[in-house]
Amino acid sequence: MMKFGRIAAAVLVCGLYSLPAWAERLPDGGLTAKAVADVLLSKGFTAQVGTDDHHDPMVSSAAAGAKFTIFFFNCDHAPRCGAIQFFAGYQHKGVSFEKINRWNQDNRFGRADLSRDRSPNVEMDVYVDKGFTTESLEGYLDLW
Question: What percent of the chain has pLDDT over 70?
Answer without folding.
Answer: 84
